[in-house]
Amino acid sequence: MCGIVGYIGKEQAAPLLLEGLSRLEYRGYDSAGVAVYSQREGRLNVHKAKGRLKILSGLLGGGDAVEGTVGVGHTRWATHGAPSDENSHPQVSRSGKIAVVHNGIIENYGELKAFLQSQGVPFASETDTEVVAHLVEYFQQDGADILTAVGRCLHRIEGAYALGIISADAPDQLIAVRKDSPLILGYGEGCSFLASDVTAILQYTRRVSYMDDGELAVLTRDGIQCYNHLMQPVEKEICAVDWEIGAAEKGGYEHFMFKEIMEQPEALRRAVFPRIRDGEVFLEDFSLPEDYIRSLRNIHIVACGSSYHVGMVGKYNLEKMLRIPVEVSLGSEFRYMDPIVDGKTLVVVISQSGETLDTMAALREARRRGAKILSIVNVVGSSIARESDQVLYTWAGPEIAVATTKAYTTQLAVLNLLGLYLAKVLGSMAAEDRREVLKDFLSLPEKLERVLENKDGIQYFASQYFNRDSVFYIGRNIDYALGLEGSLKLKEISYVHSEAYASGELKHGTISLIEPGALVIALGTCLRLFDKAMSNIVEVKSRGGDVLALTTESRADEMAKTASGVIAIPDAHPMLLPLLGAAPLQLYAYYVALMRGCDIDKPRNLAKSVTVE
Ligand code: F6R
Fold it and tell me: Is the CB of residue 592 less than 8 Å from the CB of residue 462?
């Protein structure tokens, strides 16, 4: 979603801001802009353009055409007002002296706009953000300095926001504000940064701190001072980011998505190997007491999108391992559904970004009801990680492609490890059964490498079926959960209509859609239900549909007798098969999108980190 970068230092700001924004392109956006203070002219120069960042960069000669050493930049993902030059950020006040970049939504902007208009303030855009620029200026009418005016403005605005503010009257500082939308501060030599995402500033500094909700920061060339909502100074912990810059670059691959699919065996090694020792699971810094675990009545998993699909697999596996009820809810539903959650419920929150607003809101609702929160998160220091009682990181490294791949796989792995750990505490699974799963866990990265080696085979199937307009994913049990993810992958990057069904539901309506030309991707990795999968394939074939099937190597020949094509994955413990089965589905979606000429890493209308409701 929207991205923010800010810089104050001794270098020219514009090239640096544009470079930072280019690192945020993956988040999804539709327009971009920068505001830079020119010492010579004594004013802010604001440049904005609808469309890709390269349009703005072209207009500004890569930034060389803009003079000044302090500024803010933004990539916008439209919420209030269509993508246009006017609606792009930075938004400026009437005098042009205050420029604001904003992520999130100002919920009471209508009321504030009416108030400002009644005071004679003209509006130049349809955005909610513009009210902030005007309001800050309004609060300076009595001569207040920028910090005081921003503080007053914060008392009036409601909603979720990360703000970067620059004033021509105070050009030796940048103001940053955070509420419910991430903002990171970067500490350099003689310079300071702000960014919505650490990747934007990683090449300039690795020393960062994470702003907390309600905090305001003043950035100068000499350092950064943070304040809480009462404007009392707060000391921020400075963390060192250890992500390699190369991890956020394509490294010779055509697309980040393909690179990240290929990185999965390594990501699995990082997520799993340090957590298995002497045939047992060890979860680092695990602080939930054993008595508390034994007192649990149920587990409630909360997540959105692919992370929710991980939860769906988790429900099957955790219930098997723990024999207590496991419910899975979408973050966007949980927050409004009066869930049965209390001190005897462990709420497991799953999120790659750690910033998804609906998931975050669900977390807070669960906490309000007395539940403890354990989160499975990829981005270190993200909001969800910081608001949880217990965090298990997935250690997948930066995921840049909008469509998640390696984060999905590592989330699955960590959720399974959590299940095994809880099963040990609860005594709900025999030690040898746990060891059997753990043994198989260790062989997964190598098996996944074999799956990925078969990419040409999957590319071949994609070439056969890439022009189908509608695809159905069917499967039972864990295969149904895996089908949901396969279907999402295909539709989000290739724009092919696809749906996932529990195979048993075919007869209850969906089968009416099966006719010659329909493509069904039948998942048959759940071997105890193999015969059922075979019958469903026959049903589809006999109505003229094509069936591309996924099963394990041991049953591939049998399936090939019926299906139109078969993709085989190595055999493994049944609970772990989705960890191998996801990759062929990711590759299939990737190749179909490639053959259809889609913008794979930045699919239309989508954002990597969904920080609005
Ligand atoms: C799909 C995808 C999304 C995310 C969802 C949740 O490929 O990436 O469906 O899974 O937006 O995001 P996180 O996991 O960051 O909370």
Answer: yes
Task: Please provide the DSSP assignment of 172-238 as one string.
Answer: T-EEEEEEBS--EEEE-SS-EEEESSGGGTTTT-SEEEEPPTTEEEEEETTEEEEE-TT--EEPPPP
| pLDDT tens profile 52-111 | 899 999 999 999 999 999 999 999 988 888 888 899 999 999 999 999 999 988 999 999
Q: How far apart are the first and last CA of the chain?
A: 12
Residues written for the chain: 613
String of b and e for 443-454 (b: at least 16 CB within 10 Å)?
Answer: ebbebbbebbeb
Pairing of strands 280-281, 276-277: antiparallel
Q: What is the pTM for the complete model shown?
A: 0.80
Q: How far is the CA of 315 from the centre of ligand 1 (A)?
A: 18
- Ligand 1 closest atom vs CA 489: 7
Sheet holding 565-569, edge to edge: 497-502, 470-475, 519-524, 546-552, 565-569
Mutate to test the pocket of ligand 1, among 404, 412, 414 (most ligand atoms within 8 A of CB): 404
Question: What is the distance in A from the centroid of ligand 1 to the CA of 70?
Answer: 34
Mutate-to-test residue for ligand 1 from 27, 356, 485, 605, highest number of ligand atoms within 8 A of CB = 356
- Binding site membership of 356 for ligand 1 (Cβ less than 6 Å): yes
Q: What pLDDT shows up at residue 245? A: 64
Alpha-carbon distance of 299 to 293, in angstroms, equals 10
